[in-house]
Each structure stands twice: as C-alpha cells, then as structure tokens.
TrEMBL record, chain A:
Principal place of residence: cytoplasm
EC number(s) per entry: 6.3.5.3
Protein name: Phosphoribosylformylglycinamidine synthase subunit PurS
InterPro entries, sorted: PurS, PurS-like_sf
Record GO cellular component, one term: cytoplasm
Pathway note: Purine metabolism; IMP biosynthesis via de novo pathway; 5-amino-1-(5-phospho-D-ribosyl)imidazole from N(2)-formyl-N(1)-(5-phospho-D-ribosyl)glycinamide: step 1/2
Signal sequence annotation: none
UniProt gene name: purS
Any one of the GO BP annotations: 'de novo' IMP biosynthetic process
Keyword set, alphabetical order: ATP-binding, Cytoplasm, Ligase, Nucleotide-binding, Purine biosynthesis
Organism name: Thalassospira xianhensis MCCC 1A02616
TrEMBL record, chain B:
Lineage of origin: Bacteria, Pseudomonadati, Pseudomonadota, Alphaproteobacteria, Rhodospirillales
One example GO MF annotation: phosphoribosylformylglycinamidine synthase activity
Keyword 4Fe-4S: no
Task of the protein: Part of the phosphoribosylformylglycinamidine synthase complex involved in the purines biosynthetic pathway. Catalyzes the ATP-dependent conversion of formylglycinamide ribonucleotide (FGAR) and glutamine to yield formylglycinamidine ribonucleotide (FGAM) and glutamate. The FGAM synthase complex is composed of three subunits. PurQ produces an ammonia molecule by converting glutamine to glutamate. PurL transfers the ammonia molecule to FGAR to form FGAM in an ATP-dependent manner.
Active site: 86, 203, 205
SUPFAM superfamilies in the record: Class I glutamine amidotransferase-like (SSF52317)
GO biological process: 'de novo' IMP biosynthetic process
EC id: 6.3.5.3, 3.5.1.2
HAMAP family attached to this UniProt entry: PurQ
Localization of this protein: Cytoplasm
Stated name of the protein: Phosphoribosylformylglycinamidine synthase subunit PurQ
C-alpha cells in the first residue's frame, strides 16, 4: 500500500520561499498567480492492506516526525 | 563543575562549545554521541550548532528523535541547565523542550556575520553576569533562524520574561529594521517555563577570545558557572 503525505504551512505562517517562487513566476511573465505556498510531498511504501490501521500509523508518523505541527498541517492519502 | 556536549552526525561547532565550557568551568566537557542512551551526571548540557543529519526534512527534526534526546529531556525535567545554540536551538524546539519553531530566514539567505543583541532578562542562569538592556555582539551563522510561534505563545513568553535575547542595533534599538532574520518580535533566544533550558540562534561560544574579535560571549558561560555554584 502507498501513503501520500502532503505537508503544508499553516494559514498565517509566512512562507518566504513561496513568496520568492511567486516573484520568480511573475518575472517569467505568469501574471495571473495570486499567491504561492510551498510544501512537501512524502510518499511511503507500507506493509499490509488494512487501510484504517495504515492511516492511524501514518498519522502517528506525521505527528512524531514528518510534520512540525507548530507551523505545519498535513494530509494523508492512501492507495 | 561538570558539563556535557551532545554530538550528532553533521554537527560542526562542538569544538567551540567544548572550548567555551572548558574556559568557564575549568574542566573539559564529556562528549556524548547521539546513539547513546545515557548521560553522565553533569550540571550543564550543551547542544551545539551545525547541520545535524544534513538539515534533512526540517532543521533539527531527526536529531530531536535520536536516542540521547530522551535522556536530555529527562535531565531537562530534572532541572539540569541545558543550552542549545543554533542547530541546538532548532533541535530543542523540535524535541518539544522549547516552544515555537525556527523557519527559513525571511531574506532566504544564509546569514554569517556579527550581530548585536539586547539582553532582555538578566534574572536567568544564562545571563546573570550581564546588565539588563546590555547590548552584546555575537556572531550568527544560520539559514533557518526565523523564530515563529503563535501570538498566544509569544504573549506568554513576553509576559513571563522568557524572551532573553533580541536582535537590535548598536544602540539597542529593537525594530523591524534591526530584525536580522524575520523572527517574530526580533526574538533571538528564549527559555523554558522552568528557566533551565535556553535556546538561541547566535553563537556566544564564538565570542570568548580576543582572536574571535570579541569576548561578549564569556559572560554567558560565566553565568552558568555562577548559577550552579
């Protein structure tokens, strides 16, 4: 089973890297971009086929290591 | 007086930490490898700067979960003096021993230079040898020193006198223009609720010898000795 984790900065947390990317896009002529937020995508290859068990385990991984919940939110997709 | 320096792979300031602690305490600190599970009995533990685990995932995230950090957390709870500098500060926040997080500098640049800092609270075991409002000069060298915490946490830190150091200019002016890296409220260093754990981005251990260009950092280490004796 595969787990896909998206880690994104919480609302209200400034994202200087996203801002720099936004500026660069504008410099390339992409005028229609209102905002850029940069995050992380983490793909995990998991044992077993119990989706709920996997979800609980990946949630624990996010809380303990993959995300810093002071500044980041995360979402989990299983497939 | 005994001290220990925690060493993680990728740390590169441990020898500066050792020199500063030895100068202040008169005894060479014990170096403890991250894979150890036990700490020697010491009065002071220092988590030095560098790039533990190559700053992978987030600065300090991996180091914060290494075996020795469980022992460090126990000592923190027991009231042992713990000083985290630069990557050490990042590691202590990731380990939950200090609130907030260190994010990428607002300029996105690695900043390596000397900076002025205002000592906001001298009633701590880290700063008792300084005068309140004193402006000191320490080097900084970091890419991720932009301190972030939510407003509630920031207000609590301020209200409890836990903001120990702020970025400022030579006259002690603290404002957006003298904010080195975008940190909330110019915060450069904070202590925990019990007052025994300090995390700071600047490097006092690199301001202890005239050959460093200044000795403003000496009083920080002297404070630790004073507090413990």
């Amino acid at each position: 089973m595969k787990a896909r984790v998206h880690v994104t900065l919480k609302n209200g947390v400034l994202d200087p890297q996203g801002k720099a990317v936004h500026h660069a896009l504008q410099g390339l002529g992409f005028a229609g971009v209102n905002d850029v937020r940069q995050g992380k995508f983490i793909e995990l290859e998991l044992d077993g086929s119990d989706v709920e068990k996997a979800r609980a385990e990946v949630k624990e991984m996010c809380e303990k290591l993959l995300a810093n919940t002071v500044i980041e939110d995360y979402s989990i997709e299983l497939a | 007086m005994k001290s220990a320096v925690i060493l993680f792979p990728g740390i590169n300031r441990e020898n500066d930490a050792i020199a500063a602690l030895e100068q202040a305490t008169g005894t060479k600190p014990t170096v403890v490898w991250h894979g150890e599970t036990e700490l020697p009995k010491t009065d002071i533990i220092m988590v030095p700067g560098g790039f533990s685990y190559g700053d992978y995932l987030r600065c300090g995230a991996m180091a914060a979960k290494s075996p020795i950090m469980r022992a460090v957390a126990e000592r923190a709870k027991a009231g042992v003096t713990i000083l985290g500098v630069c990557n050490g500060f990042q590691i202590l926040t990731e380990a939950g021993l200090l609130p907030g997080a260190l994010m990428r500098n607002a300029s996105l640049k690695f900043i390596c230079k000397n900076t002025r800092l205002k000592i906001e609270n001298t009633n701590t075991r880290f700063t008792n040898q300084y005068k309140t409002g004193e402006v000191v000069d320490y080097p900084v060298a970091h890419h991720d020193g932009n301190f972030f915490a939510d407003r509630e946490t920031l207000d609590r830190l301020e209200g409890e006198g836990r903001v120990v150091l702020r970025y400022c200019d030579a006259n002690g002016v603290v404002d957006p223009a003298t904010n080195l890296n975008g940190s909330q409220r110019n915060i450069a260093g904070i202590i925990n609720e019990a007052g025994n754990v300090l995390g700071m981005m600047p490097h006092p251990e690199n301001a202890i010898d005239p050959l460093h260009g200044g000795t403003d950092g000496r009083n920080l280490f002297k404070s630790l000795v004073e507090a413990a004796s």
